[in-house]
Fold this protein.
Amino acid sequence: MIYLDNAATTRPDKECLEKANQFLYDNYYNPSALYAEGYNLHLNLKQARKNILSCIADDGFDLVITSCGTEADNHALFCAGKRGNVVTTMGEHSAVYNAANELKQRGIEVRFVPLNADGSVNAEKLSELVDSKTSLVSVIHVNNETGAINDINAIARMVKAKNKNALFHADGVQAFGKISFRLDKCVDLYSISAHKIGGMKGTGALIKRKSLVLKPYIYGGGQESGLRSGTENVFGIKMFEFAALKRYSDIKKYFEQVKNLHNAMWNELDKSLFTRISPENGSPYILTVGAEGVRGETILHEADDLGIIIGTGSACSSNEKKRYSRVILSCGISENIADGILRLSFSPENTLEEVIEAAKILNKLVKNRKDIMA
């Protein structure tokens, strides 16, 4: 099986899993308990949060553990977008986009910024939509459907220059552990997820500026400094810590390794069959192409039958049962190409041999499908 849907989820890292297993079978205690074993776990989790945070931020930030990136996004939008207007983009993950539409239903004005052709945000248009009544701006760091990278630090500084009181949030789920960056002090909130980098599903985090007063999203026993109640998933948090530290231990090496896979895939794909959607300067972890006149879902299933797992866009958006991707159409892509979208996403575990074999099979499948339809 050749797995090329790593933007949706990655295989749990075996080395990290072996290190974290003790928190399933031995150190399984409640970290909020008063006995020594529980308190020791409390200290262990405190260090885990610090280690995860250190990968991209200084001590001016805190980290709130969540169940996933979606929860972190929802926490940011529903607890920060409280008044005036909220500005976000047409390129957001559904966790932000649908949350923003819910804010609209609750009486908050929501302004959507258009995209450039590669899926990045139109920063000039964004600046025009921010005003003195803007309470929150949310911009995805790496577009999960095209791989386009938004310079969130620069955009956050631009937002603050127009309205110093506006909060800035970024969904960093496809950036964390994949591209090198450090959070600027103008970024207030940042969402990350464990299972995109070899951690376990069920663990994410919302990074927040320390001085920011944020209301809880889930109420209960007061865990996560009162911001996210619920007994801590110690095993998942430790897996997240180990996976993050492993990725950031040599993130530039992994970046170049995946970039080589990305370039090899594009080089091997037949340019008469596929149109490139992803920008050349985007994240190498995602390569999105369009096969004009062919349904991407059909190619996905035929590839699966031949042992290749790929995507047609955001896995989360597949539940919305819409034929065309909102993000892809917002890039100005025609419906005929948008119908044939394939998202190929890589991890350092993939090999060059796998990529070349997958490209050959995809070329054959699309050509055969076009010949049948001719």
Observations:
- Residues 143 and 200 are 22 Å apart (CA to CA).
